[in-house]
Design goal:
The protein is built from 6 helices and 6 strands. With about 170 residues, the protein is α/β, with parallel strands linked by helices.
């Protein structure tokens, strides 16, 4: 099945990682591909201790995408393509039971991942593989193929009061 966690609210990645923990706890192999994320996080430190979980990340710079130069953008695109191809190979080989494409929608909107490659992955998803995609602004064609759609809506956020992200809570 295909699951989508989208919207402008907090919790998309957290929900996907909760599912990763559940799947790994049942002995399932999890592949987490993170797009547009490069900073170390607490959840990655925890996931590194779980042998059933593999993490691939796709960002060639610590900068925000709007700060990257053409070379950094191209390197990020190339890394994202490589990671998506790796995911596709693992899905086809059935060495991955749960595939999480975290912030894939942001990568799509910034044109830092090949949309046709994602379409091909969705169309060729074998029986028994769960696919989770997260991010803001999910394309309509993805929503039409999803079995689950959960929209996170921001009603209030500490950032609006000038409180920045806190270690152990937001990262």
């Amino acid at each position: 099945m295909v699951q989508v966690y989208c919207g402008d609210g907090k919790g998309k990645t957290t929900a996907a990682l909760g599912l990763a923990l559940r799947a790994a706890g049942h002995g399932r192999q999890v592949l987490l591909v993170q797009f547009l994320k490069g900073q170390p996080t607490g959840e990655l430190a925890s996931l590194a201790r779980i042998p059933e979980v593999t993490v691939l990340r796709g960002k060639a710079s610590e900068k925000f995408t709007f700060q990257m130069d053409e070379r950094e953008l191209q390197r990020t695109y190339d890394l994202n393509t490589k990671n998506l191809l790796t995911a596709q190979e693992q899905v086809r080989a059935k060495t991955c039971d749960l595939l999480i494409l975290d912030e894939i929608f942001g990568a799509l909107s910034c044109e830092l991942v090949d949309e046709d490659l994602l379409r091909h992955l969705l169309e060729g998803l074998p029986e028994g593989v769960e696919l989770v995609m997260t991010g803001r602004n999910s394309p309509q064609w993805v929503l039409e193929q999803a079995d689950y759609i959960t929209e996170m809506v921001c009603r209030r956020h500490p950032y609006e009061r000038g409180i920045s992200a806190r270690e152990g809570i937001e990262f």
